[in-house]
Design goal:
The chain is 73% helix and 0% strand. With 107 residues, the protein is mainly alpha-helical. The protein has one domain. Helix 1 runs antiparallel to helix 4 and helix 2 packs antiparallel against helix 3. The longest helix is centred in the first third of the chain and has 19 residues.
Length: 107
């Protein structure tokens, strides 16, 4: 899921750079590339996923074109923020797996 979101974000950045050279488009493309790199590596995945969702929400309202593509990427960002980095990620190597043990209630 991280791989698909990172590839789609990188593609969005490439298309944005090839379409125009305004400063707003350039800043947006740099942010998108940075988020794609973070997601691809699995570094700060909950934060990067949240920022992807916010960025795509902004893109859906500010850019013309297919709004549903931005909605799809925003939904992927929210899903990644909630699921976390996964096994093959920098976050898993740095911080390890977190295990939640649910105990039985003793009455």
């Amino acid at each position: 899921m991280r791989l698909v979101a990172a590839i789609a974000l990188a593609d969005q950045g490439i298309i944005a750079l090839s379409g125009g050279a305004s400063s707003e488009v350039l800043v947006s493309a740099v942010i998108v590339f940075a988020l794609a790199t973070l997601l691809l590596a699995g570094l700060w995945t909950p934060i990067a996923g949240t920022l992807v969702a916010l960025m795509e929400l902004w893109n859906a309202y500010s850019r013309p074109g297919d709004m549903w593509f931005y909605v799809l990427l925003g939904t992927l960002g929210i899903g990644l923020a909630l699921l976390g980095p996964g096994t093959w990620s920098v976050d898993a190597r740095l911080f390890g797996w977190k295990r939640i043990d649910i105990r039985d209630r003793k009455s």
